[in-house]
From TrEMBL:
Residue ranges of domain CoA-binding in the record: 12-105
Name of the protein in its database record: CoA-binding protein
Organism: Rossellomorea aquimaris
Entry-linked Pfam families: CoA_binding_2
Listed SUPFAM superfamilies: NAD(P)-binding Rossmann-fold domains
Length: 135
């Protein structure tokens, strides 16, 4: 697996506006909440994707990516690595080009599936850290 260069990641973050966050928790102590809140604070629209919560960060949650209307710039995944293949299949059915798995999350099968279809794939990187490093 090979991630885009830091410069390419910076360009992605600069042109992106909407981030769907799979596994976003409504618990402020969870990493997904803290990272998403920071990104929201930087001006990104955060869309929580989690069937087990009603809302997070003041935004109504959706159960799946397919419920989101309009294009999504980045799908940011806070789920365990073994869930990435099924998430990749759903990702392939929506209007988005960037699949981002958070730090510590990676899966070769999902990576190959997405790259074969021409998507930008970033794995095992924290979006908040990358944003800070590429500002």
């Amino acid at each position: 697996m090979e991630n885009p260069s830091r410069q390419e990641i910076g360009n992605i973050l600069k042109k992106s506006k909407r981030i769907a966050v799979i596994g976003l928790s409504d618990n402020p102590a969870r990493t997904s909440y803290m990272v998403s809140k920071a990104m929201q604070g930087q001006g990104y629209e955060i869309i929580p994707v989690n069937p087990t919560i009603d809302s997070a960060l003041g935004v109504k949650a959706v159960s799946s990516l397919k419920e989101i209307e309009g294009p999504i710039d980045i799908v940011n995944v806070f789920r365990r690595s073994e869930f990435l293949p099924e998430i990749a299949i759903e990702f392939d059915e929506i209007d988005s080009n960037v699949f981002w798995a958070q730090q510590g999350v990676m899966n070769e099968e999902a990576y190959r599936f997405l790259k074969e279809r021409g998507y930008t794939v970033i794995m095992d990187r924290c979006i908040k850290v990358e944003h800070a490093l590429t500002k």
